[in-house]
């Protein structure tokens, strides 16, 4: 069996087990909440988990692709890639307090929509950069700008996920749910990492 298929099956298994645990096996949830409510909140948070896993995939795709074969194909040096990755990290760190406050003001749902649309446009722009005939230096500048903007837009999603999910979970359930949700989130970077490793 192909290694990519095995990895995909493992990710699917972990995600499925996490979902079943949250809905059917969690002692706190079963004791305090109806099955209908537990399944309803799954319909609320699972799509956000998939979206956030895609955020992680887009966020860590460049870091996972920071290998010599990919850099040579793109004409990027390791020093330049360091600047790209640093720009993304700093954009996320500096903007986090502000994206959180803005999401509190506009609401979790609008914050999530803003994050999805903004990150999608940034990732689209990152792809379009390589289709353009501009100078290599200009492409490098725009690559850093849109990569950092992608991180900034994803910050709205982080705040929105916390805000929305907190309304559906009791305080006594939130720790376990955080573990369940993180299992789904890490499907994104894991997919990116293994795809690059297997293709390089």
List the SSEs and their pairings.
Layout: H1 3-25, H2 27-32, H3 35-64, H4 68-74, H5 78-106, H6 108-129, H7 136-168, H8 174-185, H9 187-199
Helix pairs in contact: 1-3, 1-8, 1-9, 3-6, 3-7, 3-8, 3-9, 5-6, 5-7, 6-7
In short:
Keywords: Membrane, Transmembrane, Transmembrane helix. The chain crosses the membrane at residues 6-23, 43-60, 80-99, 111-131, 137-153. With 200 residues, the chain is an all-alpha fold.
Structure description:
This protein is an all-alpha fold and 200 residues long. The chain is built from 9 helices and no strands. The chain has 2 domains: 93 residues, no CATH class; 93 residues. Helix 3 runs parallel beside helix 6, helix 5 packs antiparallel against helix 6 and helix 5 runs parallel beside helix 7. It is globular, with a radius of gyration of 19 Å.
Number of helices: 9
The major β-sheet equals: none
Mean pLDDT: 88
* Form type: globular
| Distance linking N and C termini | 19 Å
Low-confidence stretches: none
Q: How many distinct domains?
A: 2
Number of distinct beta strands:
0
Radius of gyration computed on alpha carbons:
19 Å
Which H/E pattern describes the elements? HHHHHHHHH
Strand content: under 5%
Overall helicity: over 70%
GO molecular function: transmembrane transporter activity
Protein name: Major facilitator superfamily (MFS) profile domain-containing protein
Domain Major facilitator superfamily (MFS) profile: 42-200
Membrane topology: Multi-pass membrane protein
């Amino acid at each position: 069996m192909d290694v990519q298929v095995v990895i995909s099956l493992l990710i699917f298994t972990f995600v499925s087990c996490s979902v079943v645990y949250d809905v059917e096996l969690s002692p706190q949830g079963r004791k305090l909440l109806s099955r209908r409510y537990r399944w309803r909140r799954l319909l609320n948070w699972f799509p956000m988990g998939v979206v956030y896993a895609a955020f992680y995939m887009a966020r860590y795709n460049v870091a996972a692709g920071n290998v010599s074969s990919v850099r040579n194909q793109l004409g990027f040096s390791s020093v330049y890639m360091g600047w790209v990755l640093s720009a993304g990290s700093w954009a996320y760190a500096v903007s986090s307090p502000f994206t959180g406050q803005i999401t509190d003001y506009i609401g979790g749902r609008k914050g999530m929509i803003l994050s999805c649309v903004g990150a999608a446009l940034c990732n689209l722009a990152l792809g379009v950069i390589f289709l353009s005939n501009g100078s290599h230096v200009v492409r490098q500048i725009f690559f850093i700008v849109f990569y950092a903007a992608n991180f900034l837009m994803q910050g709205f999603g982080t705040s929105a996920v916390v805000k929305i999910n907190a309304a559906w979970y009791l305080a006594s359930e939130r720790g376990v749910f955080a573990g369940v949700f993180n299992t789904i989130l890490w499907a994104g970077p894991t997919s990116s990492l293994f795809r690059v490793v297997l293709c390089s």
